[in-house]
Amino acid sequence: MATPTDCKYSTSHEWHRLSGDVLTLGLTRYAVDALTDVTYATVKPVGTVIAAGKSLGEVESVKTTSDVYSAVAGTIVEVNQAVVSDPSKLNADPYSNWLVKLKVTDTSGMEKLLSAADYDKQFPSGH
Amino acid sequence: MAQKTPLHSYHLDMGADMMEFAGYDMPKAYKPLSGGPASPKAEHLQVRSSGGLFDVSHMGRLQFKGVHVLKFLEKVCTRKIRDMKTGQCRYSLVCNEQGGVKDDVIVMRQDEDSFMMVVNASNRAKIVEHFKAVIAANTYKLSFDDVTDKTAMVAVQGPRVIEFIGKFSREIPTLKRYTFTVKNLLIAKLTVARTGYTGEDGVEVILPASMTTMAMKMIMKDVDPKAADAAIKPAGLVARDTLRIEAGMPLYGHELGEEINALSCGVDFAIGMDKDKTDHGDTFIGMEALKKTQAEGGPAKKLVGLRIDSPRQMRQGMAVLSGGKPTGTVTSGCLSPTLNINIAMAFVDKALTAEGTTFEIDLGEGKGTVPATVVKLPFYKKPS
User: Fold this and answer.
1) CA–CA separation, B352 and A109 (whole Å)
2) What is the CATH number of domain B300-384?
3) pLDDT higher than 90, residue A1
4) In principle, which of B68, B79, B203, B224 could form an S-S bond with B140, CB 3.0–4.6 Å?
């Protein structure tokens, strides 16, 4: 499964897709493979203001509990309830199953993120 | 650099995601060869429904032989050893003088004066040193050999395992639980024990490292583990952990440890407190301390099983609260793949161990608490 080239990647393993002033965010294949079967996902409620680099939720597996970060500041406008109620969707297809959408005003965090090619180089996933 | 077991190339061939464990490069879980992510949950359910194969070569295998072997084993093992029959396996603890747990082990009687012992990988070096010191201090006459690197060990576990292993040897299905037999395979000897760490029926096989590939083919006769619907598929360390938690089995570093009183771990059956009442008057290291614990009314904490009424995973070290006050600590936890609820084991005050007792578990970092209820161990018992 190819790493989508229309997203930017953080070294904390979130993908960020910016479309206008809406940022869609999810976990990378590398992240969900490291977690193994995701058993729990939680995201802060719609309306929460998230500062750049701050946690907006958590994911859990038998291995570990992990915070989810946004590289860009914004306000949560939508939570993917399908993933929250069935977190195994993240293992099946982490790039289609986004976690959260943020409305952003300042996109300055985006340029620090990695391209798909650079992310794959640093964090190769097996498939 | 992590050590490789004799099955290392098998794991890579089967699509394993590897991880370091106790100094070994071990399979965490296997990616299906047909594609898609590795799923420890799927491996767990495969073991519960059919069969799984685990590489347990990282565990230590120690060989003892000599005139004082019984005296020695009675001294280091909490369980009675003398009355073991040839071909029998027995679970025991090895304690320190304070009654804490140095390790939990399987002892196998091969002959009148010859025994094998399987110890935890993470404790092997420590246990070898401990045994050497005990042998020297008591001038016991016996030979003691660490054969871990010369051998491999696999666990084949699940309800259909005996049916398949019977194709390799008709004797194996006749073995009772906690007994073993030695099968000759050309020039190699395979020790096959009806034991395991999953709560399922199955075997654990010790084989010469140099014969691993051939022996594996014999054990897995008529099974193509690469087939999507194989009766027996490889399973990794994550599934091994969730299987043993469901089966309520303790793990060193979690439910067992040097600072944990042996009588608090729920394995009293493995502690021969009346060993000294037999003709030989044997005593084991730690016995005196444990007798004192007993005289004082038992250990302050006891291990319990907990059902967690929350989707949150329980982690080792989380505080167990009763009416808002700390009463214990979580030792292990997982989302039970078989029961589909969160389960945990924890040490709590001995007065609060009755089934149905309720607690709150502190998630830590100000994340709040979740409710927990004491349930009987094991969480899962195979249908009889």
Assistant:
1) 51
2) 2.40.30.110
3) no
4) B68
Residue A125 in any domain: the answer is no
Q: Is A114 a domain residue?
A: no
Q: What is the pLDDT of residues B120-177, one digit of tens each?
A: 999 999 999 999 999 999 999 999 999 999 999 999 999 999 999 998 889 999 999 9
* Least CB–CB distance from B17: residue in A33, A60, A91: A33
Asked if the Cβ–Cβ distance from A127 to B38 is below 8 Å, we say no
Q: Which fold has domain B1-298?
A: Gyrase A; domain 2 (3.30.1360)
Mark yes or no for CB contact A40/B311 under 8 Å. yes
| Residue B320 CB contacts under 8 Å (≥ 6 apart), including other chains | B306, B326, B327, B328, B329, B330, B346, B348, B359, B360, B361, B362, B372
> For residue A77, what are the domain limits?
8-107
A33 interface with B at CB cutoff 8 Å = yes
For B335-354, write each residue's pLDDT tens digit.
999 999 999 999 999 999 99
pTM of the entire structure? 0.96
Q: Tell me, yes or no, if A2 comes closer than 8 A to chain B by beta carbon.
A: no
- CATH number of the domain enclosing A84: 2.40.50.100
**Chain A residues with beta carbon closer than 8 angstroms to that of B17:** 33, 126
The encoded tokens of residue B291 equal 């007798």
Q: Which of B350-354's residues contact partners 24+ apart within 8 Å by CB, and which partners?
A: B350/B298, B350/B299, B350/B300, B350/B301, B350/B302, B352/B322, B352/B327, B352/B328, B353/B302, B353/B304
* Distance (Å) from the alpha carbon of A106 to chain B's nearest alpha carbon: 30
Q: Does B334 touch chain A (CB under 8 A)?
A: yes
Count of domains for chain A: 1
Contact A37 B241 (CB under 8 A): no
- Chain B residues within an 8 Å CB radius of A36: 28-29, 37-40, 238
ipTM for the whole complex = 0.90
